[in-house]
Structure formats: structure tokens, C-alpha cells
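In practice, a research group might receive sequence data for several interacting partners and want a quick structural hypothesis before committing to experiments. The following worked case mirrors that situation: the sequences arrive first, and a predicted assembly follows.
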Amino acid sequence: MKNERAEYVEILQKILTSNVPLSFFKDTIPDGQKSFFNMLFLTTFRQMTFIKNTVLPRFIQKKIPSKQKILNYIFYLSITELLFLNTPDYAVINSYVDIAKKFTDKFGANFVNAVLRNILRQKSDLLAAHRNTYFGAEFLKILKNDYSKDEIKQMEHFVSIEPALDITLKKSAKNPFSQGIILPTGSIRLEANTKVAELPAYNDGIWWVQDAAAALAVRSLNNLHGKSVLDLCAAPGGKTAQLLDEGAFVTAVDISQERLETLETNINRLHLAERLTVVCSDALNFNSSKKFDIILIDAPCSATGTFRRHPEIIHTKSLQDVIQQAELQKKILNRAISLLAPKGEILYVTCSLAKLEGEKQIDDFLKSHTDFEIKPISIFGTEKMRTKEGYLRILPQTFVIDGQTNLSGADGFFIAHLQRKI
Ligand SMILES: C[S@@+](CC[C@H](N)C(=O)[O-])C[C@H]1O[C@@H](n2cnc3c(N)ncnc32)[C@H](O)[C@@H]1O
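A structural hypothesis for the assembly, expressed as C-alpha cells:
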């Protein structure tokens, strides 16, 4: 019998060693296995810090030799199944012992067998030792630069909460959902685990999935009707759709042809393609004789703010990623100003928690570009997220809906609205 978990072990190794996102592999998994695959991987990433720091050290005293390091990935998946999922214990042990035999030797298989059986015997003690810590060491290093222990603990709490499904509705559309709540910021929030394909009016193209924090960026802009907007890092197009829906003429640029194809499919489904031009280009090489009224830079970033939906990030991102992305963002900002009309506006956005990619990036930009100033953002419902400078700094815990804790939280984002003075 084919043991698909052997393939999962290899996928886990790839994600953790080469920074490839989980979403990349989801498409390669047969439909019948997708839902289990998803649950197994999301739970593994959420529980991996506990498994690494609390469970494994109790049963393994010596470091696993590097030529047998595949055993680490076998342990992360098998222990997740034993402690947190409903797979029968014997099935977990049998399949991962077989995998250890396949990837190592009979000693490796015996070792996995012994460790898993010991863990099983102490299951309730182990679970009682869980201290709700989820962030990996490198991820903590990024956060410690910018946040207090208390703030980090509050963020960490959101790893264990399944994120809600947020929807942006077209301006002219009537809300087709009988369930969910309308957030003060305008997004519609549905329960976590709502199945998108089963929602009403999907084929009518009147709504799209977009995190409530992501939706705030374009809502920071006023009077978009008839304006020319350059959307410099546009795919898959959530913000492009908002710009078009507000009546702007949008040039959507992205470096990835594949992601632009998704953008076009999305915009066509929403019947918003009329005022859209799509260009596949590196933002740093994009040129245009016409200058734009507004430039949206939804910059490539460490994506640390999306850890709730993409928990692999809490084990794969390092300070080095943040520094590298911040350098690219600075170049894109400098490129953008040569494409901006007099008195034009820049909306700079990242889904990063790191201030190097947010507050610090824009503070530095303003120091070296004195012809720009901040336009303070004041969207209804965002009072707790405004900084004294006029930026929006959104953390999962600052996006709280009173009395509805299970419906609270949002991705981490930074949004700055800048105006050229002359
Ligand atoms: C945060 S995502 C954009 C999300 C999008 N604005 C939305 O709302 O759906 C960043 C995008 O930047 C693109 N990108 C990365 N490096 C780029 C570059 N040098 N030039 C242009 N696009 C780039 C990526 O392909 C990715 O689609």
C-alpha cells in the first residue's frame, strides 16, 4: 500500500529547509487527501515549537546525527498526529516506523518505534506541560527587535485561533450572506473554516476573499474615481479589485506571470477588467511615459504578519529575510517616485510585523525625500491601530471586535499614505 505520509515527510523537509510556502505543495496533493494534508501541516507548524522544545528533549538525549536528520521531520509529523489529531495510535506508529525504515535503516525504525511508544504512554502529562508557546526562535528574534514580551505573547495567542474568513463586497452589491458580521471597517467576517465554494453568489462576481486588515489599505485612499493608479506589486489582485471597484484606471504590474494570470482570472470573475491594464515586469524596470496620480506599493516582504493563515512562517523566516526584503522595498520606493505625478500619492503597504519593513522604512524615506509628507490615515474603526505619525500598524491583537473574541484578529499589516507636496 502506498504510504502518502512518506511524501509528506519530504514535503515538510522542503518547506523547513528551503523557504518554499505550504501553499505551493497544496496544489500537488490529490483532492481526496487535501483536507487531511492541510490539517496535518497546519497543526504541525502550530505545534512544532512545543514538540521541539518540550516533547522531544524528554525522550531523546543526544542530537540526531545530520545524516539521519530526516528523523526530525518524521517526529514532527508523527507526534502531531499522536498528540493532536484523531488518527488511531497504532496507525500512526506503524506508518511512521515504515517511513523511518524506508528513509534510514532498521535502527532508525526501532528508534522511532521506541520514542513514539514512550510518548504515547505519557500523552496526558505532555499535554499538561503545554505553555501555549508557538513561535520559533528565529521568528522571536524578529519580533523582539520591535515589540515587548507582552505584545509578543498577545500575538502568539493568535496562532491557536483558526482565522475567520473575511470578504470584501463590491460597492454596488447587496450583501448575499445571511451569516457573519459586518465589521466597523466594512469587511464581512464569516466563521473560520467556512467553505468558500459553498458561499452564495460566487459566480455572480460580487465579492472576493480578502483579510480585513489587507482591505484597509485601499480604504485609506479617497476619491479614486477616474484617477490613474499604478499597482506595482499587484498579484493576485485583492487590492487591484478594490481600486477598480472605486472607479480608478489601474495599471497592474507584477514580476510573476503565473500570479498575474490568477489576477486576471480574479478580476474577470468580478467583471472589473474594463479599466485594467496588466504588465508583467520587475517593478524596478517598469517604465511609463505617463505619470500616475497614485502608486500602490504592496511590497514583497517577509510576510510575518500572515502567520495565522501560514504558520510555516513562524519556523521559516529569519531576520536576514527581513533585512533583504527591506532593501528591495527601499529600491521599489525609489523607483516609484520617478513614475509619480506632481502632488501624487504613494500608498505603501506590507504584511510584515517587522518595523524595518514598515515604520522604519518610511521614516527613512521621509528623511531623504523632504518633498513628501504623511497623510494621516483615519478610517472608522481603526482607532487602536493608528500610530502617532499617522500610519496604520495592525497587529492581530489590535483588531478586536468587542464581545466576539472568536471572531477577532487580523493579519499583521503596515500602511503608510504619503503625499508629494509639489
Ligand atoms: C504582497 S504580494 C501582493 C498582493 C496583492 N497586492 C494583493 O492585494 O492581492 C507581493 C507581490 O509582489 C510581487 N513581486 C515580488 N517582487 C517583485 C518585483 N521586484 N517587482 C514586481 N513585483 C514583485 C510578487 O510576485 C507578489 O505577487
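Before designing any experiment, note the following. The longest strand covers residues 340-350. The first helix runs from residue 4 to 18.
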